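Private note to self, pasted from the team thread so I don't lose it. Backbone tokens:
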């Protein structure tokens, strides 16, 4: 009877250890999946912030044509631009966006910028949606209006305080073959 009880206790301990090992393996695998999707989302943010939005500011039609010829159509990225993207970039949300522009925080519902990123273990689809725009007094021409350094500027008069153009973007990166593998980010872009 004692040997039977000792065997039962030993079997319980072994089952508990096996359960902990299996749970650790599952957690490790889910973290790896999440990290892959998170890195795709970060890559999507970099592409939007460094390539797409700067080309669209101030010259939307020529910038979108250039982007579509470089990244659109049959390229590996397959860039798609939403119909209300120009209004969302150039106008304040409270006063200038059309009534058809979606402001829900879900990036996958009516996205403004969508593209595909290639990965070694499969492709990722990245959805970007502008959910808020606050216009500022930023110069979108790329010229420095007052190159003065320190207190004394080169121009005479009083310059207005710089107030940046703020854009809030929701980003969702997910694996093309399994949309449950996803990561979401919120980005504040100031220009």
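Design output:
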């Amino acid at each position: 009877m004692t040997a039977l009880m000792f065997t039962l206790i030993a079997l319980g301990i072994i089952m508990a250890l096996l359960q902990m090992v299996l749970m650790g393996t599952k957690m490790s695998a889910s973290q790896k999946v999440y990290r892959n999707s998170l890195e795709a989302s970060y890559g999507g943010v970099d592409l939007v912030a460094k390539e797409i939005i700067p080309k669209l500011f101030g010259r939307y039609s020529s910038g979108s044509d250039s982007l579509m010829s470089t990244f659109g159509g049959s390229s590996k990225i397959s860039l798609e631009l939403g119909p209300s993207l120009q209004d969302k970039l150039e106008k304040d949300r409270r006063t200038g966006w059309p009534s058809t522009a979606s402001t829900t925080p879900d990036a996958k519902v009516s996205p403004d910028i969508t593209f595909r990123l290639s990965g070694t273990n499969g492709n990722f689809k990245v959805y970007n949606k502008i959910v808020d725009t606050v216009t500022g007094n930023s110069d979108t021409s790329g010229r420095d209006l007052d190159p003065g350094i320190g207190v004394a500027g080169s121009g005479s008069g009083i310059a207005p305080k710089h107030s940046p153009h703020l854009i809030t973007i929701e980003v969702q990166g997910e694996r093309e073959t399994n949309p449950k593998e996803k990561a979401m980010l919120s980005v504040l872009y100031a220009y």
